Structures are given as structure tokens and as C-alpha cells.
Write a sequence for this structure.
DNA sequence: CCGGGTGGTTTCCGTTGGTAACTCACGCTA
DNA sequence: TAGCGTGAGTTACCAACGGAAACCACCCGG
């Protein structure tokens, strides 16, 4: 964006700032996983599945900085760290959980839409290759002839 | 995640898949900007502000593939491309808009939480530097002596 | 021929995310 | 005494994603 690119700053930029804070790849998952009470680090990691320690640590730090979770260290051996939603986090959980549940409820519709799109546009190649391939090849009803590899 | 790292795949992985699809940095902004009707490419770009053409194009393609928006090309001179939410997109808009409005309504609370955190932990350094610095130094009520740069 | 406006792609580079190994501090086992 | 396992976290390295800017194709006005 150029400096002279004057746009009307509706309600968009502030939203974008906060969205960038909660827009980490795993933030929604972490917050929704925390909704049933405090959780230990490895518990979270195990429950989410597919997240690395590095990113889980970083995302939790970020959530802590933004006031969404608290981090409680019990100095035992081995050390024990519990993460829990704050009031702010619990409030954020409400809309985030709605998104999460929408995603769960409409997963198949998205998958079907993807399939329909690629059947109508066989030459289309998804710009975000990795994740897209995962989605297509995963729990799809019949992912044979997934047109993503053909190009 | 290792292959032998068996976890119970609750409702977490499917959600994560869809979330990765809609979890692009700008996806929420784009969908919520589209809620009042179809929009042209540059209109979207101007309205959102801060997004590059490349990413806007890629994100819109992704949304199109997932069945959230339609892309209508009018072969006029200069060419005109309109993007509009599908039914699926309008349904997704509901929870996404809730997130967006939460972010707008609670922006200052997040900012305050950040400030309080950094006042209590002056040594803390945010792992995601760029965005965090932007957030702190931006429309904050009094961002003088923002402790992030001092380290 | 030059510049403007539109939608989009390409190039380069910084940031983010993933993988694997290592650390710390202890108790258990041999 | 040495080695192993634990739990939270860090580090090094590397691929993918996101951002800035340039370029492309198209046609019109001057």
C-alpha cells in the first residue's frame, strides 16, 4: 500500500490489527481447545495435533500478551505450566467458537464446493499448494482423480 | 507432529483444515467487506487498505475455490471483475462478522491488556515483531515509552 | 508515443510455520 | 556412576507464505 493511497478507514483497519493478533494459524484452535478449563502445554499440543512446540509456544505467548490467556508455572520437576482463558479470552471464545463450529458443521459443503470448482476448472491450480492438497486428499468422500496434481 | 504421535482426533483436525482455508491473514476482512453486496477488485483493495494485489488475488481465488465467493468477469474495456458472496459465503459471514465486530468493539481492551503485560514484564519481547510493533505504536492512547523497543 | 486506469502476474525479500535436535533439572534404574 | 524419561521450551535450519514494487495487456485521449 502506497502512502498516498488514501482510503476511507471505515471499521477495517482496527479490525485488521486485532485480526492479525488472533489470526495466527493455530490461534482459533488453541482458544477453542481451552474453553473447557485450564490445560497443560503438552495436553494442548496432544489435543490439537499437528502443531509444533515452537509455534504453540509462540502462539501462547502472543495470546498471553494480548490478555487472552494466563500462564501459570508450577515450579515442580519436571516443570508444569497451565494455560487458562482470561475473561477477555472467554469473551473472544464466543465468536471464535461460532466460527469453529461453523467450520465443523460445513466441512463437507466446503469440500464439495472445492470438488465442483475443480471439476469445472480442471486447469486451475490452487495458489496455496500445501494446505490445499492436504484438504483435498484427506477425508474427502472420493478423492480419486483429485485434479490438483495434474495441473 | 510425528507419525506415531497418536492423539484423539476430536473435532479438531477437520476444524483446523477449514480454518486453514479461511485462516489467511486477510480472509476475514475480505468476506466481511463483501457483506453489503458485490464488489470490484480495486474497490475491495481500496476499502481494505494495506493488502497487496498479489495476496488479494490469491485470497480471492482461494475463496472462489472454496465456494465462498463468485468471480464475475465483464469483458469490457477496461475489464471489470466483480466478487460476490455465495450462499455458503453468506453463511460463513455470520460467525466471521461476529469475530470482526468483537475485534472492533474490544480493540481498546486488547491494547490495554498488551500495555499492562509489557509494563509488568519489561523484558518480554514479542515473538512476532512486526505486527506487534505496529499494534503497539499505532492508535494507542499514549504510546510514548512503548517498552517493546527498549528490550 | 506517452500516460492513465483496470485486473493480474512476476520478482525479490522478509516473516511465519514446520522439523528435529538440544537444554534443564530431577528421579528412576542398572 | 552412567543412562533414560519426563515436560516445557529453545535453537538451527529450511520451506512456504506475505509484502513492495515492477511489469503486462488492453484501449483511449492527447
Amino acid at each position: 500500500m502506497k502512502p498516498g493511497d488514501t482510503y476511507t478507514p471505515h471499521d477495517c483497519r482496527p479490525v485488521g490489527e486485532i485480526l492479525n493478533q488472533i489470526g495466527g494459524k493455530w490461534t482459533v484452535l488453541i482458544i477453542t481447545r481451552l474453553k473447557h478449563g485450564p490445560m497443560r502445554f503438552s495436553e494442548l499440543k496432544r489435543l490439537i495435533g499437528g502443531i509444533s512446540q515452537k509455534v504453540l509456544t509462540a502462539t501462547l505467548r502472543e495470546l498471553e500478551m494480548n490478555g487472552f490467556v494466563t500462564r501459570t508455572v508450577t515450579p515442580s520437576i519436571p516443570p508444569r505450566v497451565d494455560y487458562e482463558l482470561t475473561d477477555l479470552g472467554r469473551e473472544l471464545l464466543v465468536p471464535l467458537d461460532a466460527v469453529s463450529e461453523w467450520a465443523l458443521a460445513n466441512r463437507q459443503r466446503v469440500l464439495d464446493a472445492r470438488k465442483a470448482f475443480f471439476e469445472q476448472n480442471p486447469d486451475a491450480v490452487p495458489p496455496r499448494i500445501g494446505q490445499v492438497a492436504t484438504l483435498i486428499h484427506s477425508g474427502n468422500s472420493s478423492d480419486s482423480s483429485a485434479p490438483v496434481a495434474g495441473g
Q: What stands out?
A: The radius of gyration of chain A is 19 Å. The longest strand of chain A covers residues 69-74. The beta strands of chain A are 39-40, 69-74, 80-85.
